[in-house]
Amino acid sequence: MLPRDSKCGALIRQEHVQLTPLMIPKSPDFDVKDSQFFGKFTKLPSPEEVRSQAKAQHLAGVCPDNRKTFSLEGPHVRPPPVIFKDLGLFVKWGSAARISEGQCLYAPGQLLKDQVPVPEIYGWREDGGQTFIYMEYLHAQTLEQAWEKLESDDRVSICCELRTIYNNIRHLEQKPAESFIGTILSTASAFF
């Protein structure tokens, strides 16, 4: 049984987990075949199907992230994410998206599955200068949306949960000669 955090009472991981570059898929087209998604479906939507769904969402006036805008003509640098509700699928995409973002969710999802809650990654693709990261769709309010409505005790509880999650992430270790966290796989994108 895992010990509990002395201040929050949440379970914390004690043993360290060795993370090596060989554990992270490097392919520009990768499917996580043992994910929940592939237990129900045979393939992820193609990049063209994602672009089409983005256009349909835009024309229907649906925008999963109001901080982002969509243009029918492009370029699609940081467009709003695409949601396929019937597939339980959320797709982050655009020319500014990077495979390393998917890799950064894949690693703790695989190695710290019960200690670090992250959306399950189903795969990623590169197509036409754009990257597509396919992940579990979680239909819920964001913490940003809910924070002001929360009671003080609920906020403290959430802060304790976040503390425990960060403590668990710190249990990922790497050999000094294979150091890549912070710049996963020697790219310029941040790991955590």
Description:
It is a single chain. By secondary structure, the chain is an alpha+beta fold. The protein has one domain. Helix content is 28%, strand content 15%. It has 5 helices and 7 strands; from the N terminus they run E-E-H-H-E-E-H-E-E-H-H-E. The strands form 2 sheets. It has a 5-stranded antiparallel β-sheet, with helices on both faces. The protein has a two-stranded parallel sheet with strand order 1-7. Strand 3 and strand 4 form a beta hairpin. The longest helix is centred in the last third of the chain and has 18 residues. The chain starts with 16 loop residues before the first strand and ends in a 19-residue tail after the last strand. The C terminus is likely disordered. It comes from Penicillium arizonense. This is Protein kinase domain-containing protein.
Descriptive terms for the model:
alpha+beta, 5-stranded antiparallel β-sheet, 7 strands, 15% strand, globular, Protein kinase domain-containing protein, Kinase-like_dom_sf
Summarize model confidence as the mean pLDDT: 85
Largest sheet: 5 strands, antiparallel
How many angstroms does the end-to-end distance come to? 27 Å
Strand content: 15-25%
Structural class: alpha+beta
Gross morphology is globular
What is Rg? 18 Å
Helix residue percentage: 25-40%
Sequence of strands across the biggest β-sheet: 2-5-6-4-3
How many strands appear in the DSSP assignment?
7
Number of domains: 1
Question: Number of helix segments?
Answer: 5
Low-confidence stretches: 183-192
String of helices and strands: EEHHEEHEEHHE
